[in-house]
């Protein structure tokens, strides 16, 4: 739909890069994609993000935008369309930003430690991940009772930020030994997962859950081999 030059630099299993994919696809923005090798980063990536030299990077008309939540915010401003991700109401906007940040500080941290850590630290990571998912279940029931998304009937900023973690659940279970409680314990979370997975724009870029689990297994083996 957009005639602008839009390009995404990313590494396929990255939940941070998936946020950008999801935002662009929900908006119907056409874009080019460049897969990055994180062990041999492209000159374009290093020049586009010289501070952190990390993916994802969105390049819009030659100008780079870095950091996933910053990029999603940018996309929402540049291509508002009929599907706004950030609510207009200041309080609702603050709540959406809070839960997006929660994904970075709690979900990603716990999931990463679960795959990489050993012994007591590994056990603690599993407990932390369960706590984080429980809080998301509770938040969904409070913020949007009876609705499938944080945004109510449609995905908003918080949904886009948290949804990429869904495809990592199988990896957390297979590699990290995480046991995901059933829908009777977390009904809101399961309803949300089903709703996210049914969105056509989400299906476009979401990698196979099995492939993600295999990737997580590779990470775990490298950690064990280096220990």
Protein described:
- The chain is α+β, with helices and mostly antiparallel strands and 227 residues long.
- The protein folds into 2 domains: 6-78, Glutaredoxin (3-Layer(aba) Sandwich), CATH 3.40.30; 90-226, Up-down Bundle (Glutathione S-transferase Yfyf (Class Pi), Chain A, domain 2).
- Helix content is 57%, strand content 7%.
- It is built from 10 helices and 4 strands; from the N terminus they run βαβαββαααααααα.
- The protein has helices at residues 15-27, 43-48, 68-78, 90-116, 119-143, 157-162, 169-174, 187-197, 200-205, 209-226; strands at residues 6-10, 32-35, 57-60, 63-66.
- It has a 4-stranded mixed β-sheet with strand order 2-1-3-4, with helices on one face.
- Strand 3 and strand 4 form a beta hairpin.
- Helix 1 (15-27) packs parallel to helix 3 and helix 4 (90-116) packs antiparallel against helix 5.
- It starts with 5 loop residues before the first strand and ends with a helix.
Q: Number of helical runs? A: 10
Mean pLDDT over the full residue set: 95
Are there runs of 5+ residues with pLDDT below 50, and where?
A: none
Task: Report Rg.
Answer: 18 Å
Strand order of the biggest β-sheet: 2-1-3-4
Just name the CATH architecture of the largest domain. Up-down Bundle
Shape summary: globular
**Number of separate domains:** 2
Spatial gap, N to C terminus: 49 Å
Helix content: 55-70%
Instruction: Work out the number of β strands.
Output: 4
Major sheet description: 4 strands, mixed
Sheet-strand content, in percent, reads 5-15%
Encode the helix/strand succession as letters.
EHEHEEHHHHHHHH
CATH topology of the largest domain: Glutathione S-transferase Yfyf (Class Pi), Chain A, domain 2
Structural class: alpha+beta
The level 1 CATH classification of the largest domain is Mainly Alpha
Organism: Selaginella moellendorffii
Domain GST C-terminal: 89-215
GO cellular component, one term: cytoplasm
InterPro entries: Glutathione-S-Trfase_C-like, Glutathione-S-Trfase_C_sf, Glutathione_S-Trfase, Glutathione_S-Trfase_N, GST_C_Tau, Omega/Tau-like, Thioredoxin-like_sf
């Amino acid at each position: 739909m957009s005639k602008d030059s839009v390009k995404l630099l990313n590494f396929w299993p990255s939940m941070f890069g998936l946020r950008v994919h999801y935002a662009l696809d929900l908006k119907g923005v056409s874009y080019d994609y460049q897969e990055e090798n994180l062990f041999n980063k492209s000159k374009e990536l290093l020049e586009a993000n010289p501070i952190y030299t990390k993916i994802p990077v969105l390049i819009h008309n030659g100008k780079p935008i870095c950091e996933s939540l910053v990029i999603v915010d940018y996309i929402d401003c540049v291509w508002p369309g009929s599907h706004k991700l950030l609510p207009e109401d200041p309080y609702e906007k603050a709540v959406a930003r809070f839960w997006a940040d929660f994904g970075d500080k709690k979900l990603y941290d716990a999931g990463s430690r679960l795959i990489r850590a050993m012994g007591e630290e590994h056990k603690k990571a599993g407990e932390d991940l369960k706590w984080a998912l429980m809080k998301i279940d509770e938040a969904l029931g409070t913020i949007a009772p009876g609705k499938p998304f944080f945004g109510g009937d449609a995905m908003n900023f918080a949904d886009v930020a948290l949804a990429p973690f869904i495809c990592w659940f199988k990896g957390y279970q297979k590699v990290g030994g995480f046991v995901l409680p059933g829908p009777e314990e977390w009904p809101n979370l399961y309803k949300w997962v089903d709703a996210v997975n049914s969105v056509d724009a989400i299906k476009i870029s979401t990698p196979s859950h099995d492939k993600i689990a295999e990737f997580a297994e590779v990470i775990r083996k490298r950690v064990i081999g280096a220990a």
